[in-house]
Recover the amino acids of this structure.
């Protein structure tokens, strides 16, 4: 029987790299390391529900060590792998107050830094809903040969070299973008490889789904409330209201938005005047992916990726998804 050719993520990134004669392969090897961390996190995620059932994975193990929470596990796994990667000068994570510069000579000579949200949507772990990991890769601006510095981590999103996410859903996938486009790879568990399943992803220009925590409406601006009313009334495109979907896990809501079209919103409101989501490891990577797929991402007064960050954990409002839906919301909330 003829078998169709499986293309693994490693093969794919190497093929892509060959399009640039000057490329050194360092970015491909970094993506491979992030994929490896994703497989290790996936292994833990898949047994999350067993933690209280099987003694071996109980709250404390036989040595009396406390079972690590998944977001701590994911953070430590990513840091552990990237620290010993030959191509990562340092990291910044949602779970660490400050950036971490790797000080060995390999790392000090590495060109790239990685920012990540190790486990996104952690409130969904207990209810078996999709969760994810989000990452963003920059070329460092500090001097090679020395440890990286904070300046490497507070670059605007438009300087990202690559960005992506891993979704631990009904299947596990890694989706990553470079300036060449966006591609998705599904984990084939029996061989432990991410295989190309969603080549050249494009975000539809129009969508039928809006995704927002609508419970916060009373805290929203008038413009935002008017936009939500527009979503709930029959519109001229469909002759019916848009559908509302909100998982509360940005990776899962964005994965649907990327593939099916729609808009994902986390606005500023009275209790979060700067929005809730983090610029550097949630909104910028998603903006990079969605724009590489033909969509749009704004904070309401300009492109997300044009914001010059001033600190590592800063927040931003975000309106992201199908180009025409983002343009429409700007008619209501645009600054
Ligand atoms: P994290 O689990 O990394 O802290 O992120 C949770 C985020 C994001 O995934 C999601 O879109 C948002 O929080 C949900 O917030 P609300 O519960 O306020 O809607
Ligand atoms: Mn998050
Ligand atoms: Mn998180």
């Amino acid at each position: 029987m003829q078998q169709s050719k499986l293309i693994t993520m490693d093969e794919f990134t190497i093929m892509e790299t060959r399009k640039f004669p000057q490329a050194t392969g360092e970015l491909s090897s970094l993506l491979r390391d992030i994929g490896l961390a994703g497989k290790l996190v996936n292994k833990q995620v898949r047994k999350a529900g067993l933690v209280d059932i099987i003694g071996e994975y109980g709250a404390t193990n036989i040595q009396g060590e406390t079972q690590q929470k998944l977001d701590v596990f994911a953070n430590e796994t990513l840091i552990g792998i990237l620290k010993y990667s030959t191509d990562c000068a340092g990291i910044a994570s949602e779970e660490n107050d400050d950036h971490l510069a790797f000080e060995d000579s390999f790392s000090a000579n590495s060109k790239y830094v990685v920012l990540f949200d190790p486990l996104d949507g952690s409130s969904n772990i207990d209810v078996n809903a999709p969760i994810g990991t989000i990452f963003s890769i920059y070329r460092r601006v500090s001097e090679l040969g020395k440890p990286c510095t904070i300046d490497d981590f507070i670059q605007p999103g438009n300087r990202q070299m690559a960005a992506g996410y891993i979704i631990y859903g009904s299947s596990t996938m890694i989706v990553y973008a470079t300036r060449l486009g966006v591609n998705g790879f599904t984990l084939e568990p029996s061989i432990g490889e991410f295989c190309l399943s969603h080549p050249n992803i494009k975000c539809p220009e129009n969508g039928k789904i809006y995704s927002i925590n609508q419970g916060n409406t009373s805290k929203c601006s008038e413009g935002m409330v008017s936009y939500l009313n527009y979503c709930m009334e029959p519109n001229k495109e469909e002759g019916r209201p848009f559908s509302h979907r909100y998982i509360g896990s940005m990776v899962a809501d964005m994965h649907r938005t990327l593939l099916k079209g729609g808009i994902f919103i986390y606005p500023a409101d009275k209790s979060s005047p700067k929005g809730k989501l983090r610029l550097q490891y949630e909104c910028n990577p998603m903006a990079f992916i969605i724009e590489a797929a033909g969509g749009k991402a704004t904070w309401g007064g300009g492109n997300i990726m044009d914001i010059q960050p001033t600190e590592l954990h800063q927040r931003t409002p975000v309106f992201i998804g199908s180009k025409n839906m983002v343009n429409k919301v700007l008619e209501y909330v645009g600054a």
